[in-house]
Amino acid sequence: MYSSIVPTVPAQPTDEMGSQLKSPDPRPDDPPDCNSHFVPGPPGASVFLPAGYPRGLSMGYDPQQPSAFSYCQPTSSTHPIQYQPGNYPVPNKPASIIWMPGPTLMADCPPGLEYLTQLDNIHVLQHFEPLEMITHFETNNKYDIKNNLDQMVYIVTEDTDDFTRNAYRTLRPFVLRVSDFMGREIMTMQRPFRCTCCCFCCPSTRQELEVQCPPGITIGFVMDHWNLCRAVYSIQNEKKENVLSIRGPCSTYGCGSDSVFEVKAIDGVSNIGSIIRKWNGLMSAMGHADHFDIHFPLDLDVKMKAMIFGACFLIDFMYFERSPQHSSR
């Protein structure tokens, strides 16, 4: 009776019914297959690691370095190149400034002038500003002060507003700030405005420079005196008493030669030192990058050394600072 019955496979439920019968999956849907549309290309040539790299590591990896890629490769196995942490060489980086070693503090010396006690010669180098020549816009002057070993001693920067510089040009009042290797202002030089429209022999028209060291404490003055033939200055102490004198050449515009300003004692006979404006060819002719050599005795009072140093800048502004010529058309 039952032998004629043939077992059949139960009918599969429809999609709607199957979805109701399937047990819910608590996991989220699987992410899409990112490689579903990837079609592998033909095999390429094998790449072999160069000699010196360990097998199994990527090229450029150095297991001795903490970073993934080594900064540089040694030139030889005997003396590899080594650098301190953080002091890696940078291409086209300007050379670092070499400063003169700091001297010991002295009791009777104004702070910051200890360098001058060890020197009998300093160089004043003005920065060249090509933008000033092109635009005819007067900018603040900057100077490097160096010793004979080309070590930096001070940095001098002018602090004058744009209107004053471009309205009064070489006659402008200015403030020069002298800084040491730590950026501290150790000396200030101030030039007040003097009208030159009146008679040249009038005392109120003569140029003057006040030197303060430290800033706020006056140590002396540089006074300009009228003379028919040459530049004449007197160096005074804080009480405006004459201590030294400076006599310049008959012509400060000599082409092809140095201009020497002799520093003499108050009697005008004994030679103390000199301020020499060096001739540097085209740069000197344009007057935008002056170079001065200052000489004084090693045992000279340090305040007088600072006064001779300050007189150099008054001489520069009065005789060698060239204002850009504006076209009249």
UniProtKB/TrEMBL annotation:
The protein's matches in PANTHER family, at most eight in alphabetical order, are given as: PHOSPHOLIPID SCRAMBLASE 4, PHOSPHOLIPID SCRAMBLASE-RELATED
A Pfam family reported for this protein in Swiss-Prot or TrEMBL: Scramblase
- Keywords, ordered alphabetically: Calcium, Lipoprotein, Palmitate
> What does the similarity note say?
Belongs to the phospholipid scramblase family.
Please list the cofactors this protein needs.
Answer: Ca(2+)
- Among its keywords, does the record have Calcium? yes
Q: What is this protein called?
A: Phospholipid scramblase
- Please explain the role this protein plays, according to its UniProt record: May mediate accelerated ATP-independent bidirectional transbilayer migration of phospholipids upon binding calcium ions that results in a loss of phospholipid asymmetry in the plasma membrane.
Top-level lineage group? Eukaryota
Q: Where is this region: Disordered?
A: 1-36
The portions of this protein that span the membrane are none
